[in-house]
Each structure stands twice: as structure tokens, then as C-alpha cells.
Amino acid sequence: MNLYINGEDRVFSPAPGPALFTLAALIESLAMKPDRVAVELNREIVPRDRWPQTPLKDGDRLEIVHFVGGGCCVLPLRHSSS
Description:
The chain is about 10% helix and about 25% strand. With about 80 residues, it is mainly beta. Strands 2-1-5-3-4 form a five-stranded mixed beta sheet, with no helix packed on it. The longest helix is centred in the first third of the chain and has 7 residues, at about 25-30.
């Protein structure tokens, strides 16, 4: 199955048997933490609680945004003594 993720063509093997390859399975296969990701599927944002029921089809286009926590500390400026 070909999916376009963040503008890149990616190939995924279909799940064996009648199981569908879902959005939740994709996020898991990409080793992303679901609570730090937002997903747009074919220009529609998909709520996280619908990922397990959202099947992916060949040619789907996804934008995946991965949020990174953290912050920046403010360091005091060092003044040179001249």
C-alpha cells in the first residue's frame, strides 16, 4: 500500500488476512506516541478516538505533526570585564 506522509511516498505491507490497516496501526508502526501526534487524512483532521476505526487506503495522503515537549531556559548574559 502506498501512502503519502508529509509529502513523501511510503510503502507499507498490507496486514495479513482480512484485517484493515488503520490509522492507529500506522502511528504504532512509525513508533510515534499517540498522545503527541495530530493527524490529517486527505485534508481532514481525524480525532484520536477515531484512529482505531479509520482504515487507510492505497494513495491516502497524511500530514502527521509530532509535538515535542520541553522548553528553553533563559541563561544570564555574561558581561566581559574590560
